[in-house]
Amino acid sequence: MRYSLKQLAVFDAVADSGSVSQAAEMLSLTQSATSMSLSQLEKMLGRPLFERKGKRLILTHWGSWLRPKAKRLLRDAKQIETGFYDQHLLSGEIRLGASQTPAEHLIPDLISIIDNDFPEIRISLGVQSTSSVISGVLDYRYDLGIIEGRVDDNRLHQEPWCTDHLMIVSSAHHPFAKRERVSMAQLEQAKWVLREHGSGTRTAFESAIYDHIADLDVWREYEHIPVIRRMVANGPYLTCLPYLDVERYIEAGKLVALNVPELNIARSLSFVWRADMAENPLVDCIKREGIRMMKRHPMVM
């Protein structure tokens, strides 16, 4: 082999950052040394790995082909190093991306379990919408994603983790709050405050509601669930949110779950990871401990 792990590390850092100077900073190298390593790698492979678009370096077809293989080699090399020095095969960092509902209600307990049983594993967490988590996994910003709903992309593997249920809620003083059932015609007349497009909650809700109502009066759209809860609790709006996000507020009388017999919006929370990713014991550990956690303490939906 004519290429080195250092050259692959430079390639990977430039792919992540889109910049030789940022890659040099990430690797604690000089810019000239970083540029030289990248040039040597391209020369040895006989293919250009990047093309310049504006101020950024973008992967060529050959660079995209090399990227998962380089990441695999670098991860294996890191595992060998930490395994010999620390005698902990399950050690190192995993980058986890999650949508809001699992991030707020499930992942803190999961991280606590990992910290207790596998103290050498470090977990960095990014909280974004489902579509952004999917993009982050595809762009290598996350090693593992936890999302709401389904993803249809053959570049990803998906494994169900647990089930979730969405509820339509109003304030206690809303005209619909005292009704035994709420009709589709009444929902069509209501003002709605919803999650933003791209969130798993919004996608699941629209998939269910638009079979019955073609045009909702969506008054506001927000990314943050606490904003939506507060607006609905204090205003004339309806919303659709996960059970886990409204349970305590319903019990406290701040929100009321509306009975809409035509709608039963169930969905899955799932793990997603790149299909071309090699075996990764840290990813496997997170998935395994997450499933064990749900078996010990299943959610009541």
Automatic annotation (TrEMBL):
InterPro entries: LysR_HTH_N (IPR000847), LysR_subst-bd (IPR005119), WH-like_DNA-bd_sf (IPR036388), WH_DNA-bd_sf (IPR036390)
Species the sequence originates in: Enterovibrio coralii
Recorded superkingdom: Bacteria
UniProt domain HTH lysR-type: residue ranges: 1-60
Family: Belongs to the LysR transcriptional regulatory family.
Protein name per UniProt: LysR family transcriptional regulator
Pfam families: HTH_1, LysR_substrate
Keywords linked to the UniProt accession: DNA-binding, Transcription, Transcription regulation
